């Protein structure tokens, strides 16, 4: 049995920059990309989008919210918006469209804290902080796998034989959230290796070059 489900966007600030949750006021409106896609929009007009994902999502959300009349500030620790999309030759178009809608892009900037109707930003080089007004903050950071089904099945492994199951594997976003390309690759690879011989315990599915240093004679 193979499990490949979606992922959940984090709302605690953890991503590339922050490996631990940041300080967030319980009365602050913090949204994830999933919230926005589900129709939950910022309550006020001043919106901060914090991009620590660097793919297309933050740029698209900035364009979307600006088009709906929000005053959007886009902050990122990178040198440009959606910087990873340089690898897909989309960065120029993704940054251009929000700029044309009046979005302000603030580069080399880290989100340190989210308060009620405000946020604290810091320069990635100097650490110098500034406080800005923000009615809502959209966090585009890391994602968590939807692994509830996997965990439940693993806990009931003694029932597998009765259900005709030999093993349960997680692939794609159920294992580690990533791009669509990664999910497609994971599915294809699983299908190609499905009927292969199982690997011996401790083995890896690739060849290793074992090198040894010897003394010169």
Give keywords.
24% helix, 217 residues, five-stranded parallel β-sheet, 6 helices, Rossmann fold, 2 domains, FAD/NAD(P)-binding domain, four-stranded mixed β-sheet, alpha/beta
Q: What do these coordinates show?
A:
By secondary structure, this protein is of the alpha/beta class. It has 2 domains: 1-16 and 142-217, Rossmann fold; 26-139, FAD/NAD(P)-binding domain, CATH 3.50.50. Helices cover 24% and strands 24% of the residues. It is built from 6 helices and 13 strands. It has helices at residues 33-37, 57-67, 91-100, 148-155, 160-163, 180-193; strands spanning 2-3, 7-9, 23-24, 30-31, 46-51, 71-75, 104-106, 109-115, 118-123, 129-133, 136-140, 143-145, 169-170. The strands form 4 sheets. It has a 5-stranded parallel beta sheet with strand order 4-11-5-6-7. Strands 3-8-9-10 form a 4-stranded mixed beta sheet, with no helix packed on it. Strand 9 and strand 10 form a beta hairpin. Helix 2 packs parallel to helix 3. The longest helix is centred in the C-terminal third of the chain and has 14 residues, at 180-193. The protein is globular, with a radius of gyration of 22 Å. It starts with a strand and ends in a 24-residue tail after the last helix. The mean pLDDT is 88.
């Amino acid at each position: 049995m193979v499990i490949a489900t979606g992922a959940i966007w984090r709302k605690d600030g953890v991503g590339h920059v922050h490996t631990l949750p940041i300080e967030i006021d319980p009365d602050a409106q913090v949204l994830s990309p999933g919230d926005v896609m589900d129709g939950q929009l910022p309550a006020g007009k001043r919106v901060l989008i914090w991009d620590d994902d660097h793919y297309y999502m933050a740029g698209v959300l900035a364009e979307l919210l600006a088009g709906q009349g929000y005053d959007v500030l886009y902050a990122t620790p990178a040198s440009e918006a959606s910087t990873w999309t340089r690898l897909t030759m989309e960065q120029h178009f993704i940054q251009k469209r929000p700029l044309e809608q009046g979005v302000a892009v603030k580069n080399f900037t880290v989100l340190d804290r989210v308060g009620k109707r405000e946020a604290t930003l810091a320069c990635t080089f100097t650490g110098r902080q500034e406080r800005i007004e923000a009615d809502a903050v959209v966090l585009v950071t890391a994602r968590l796998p939807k692994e509830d089904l996997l965990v439940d099945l693993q806990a009931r492994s003694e029932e597998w034989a009765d259900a005709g199951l030999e093993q349960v594997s997680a692939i794609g976003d159920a294992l580690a959230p990533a791009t669509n390309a990664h999910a497609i690759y994971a599915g294809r690879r699983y299908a190609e290796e499905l009927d292969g011989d199982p690997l011996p315990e401790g083995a890896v599915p690739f060849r290793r070059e074992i090198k040894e240093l010897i003394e010169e004679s």
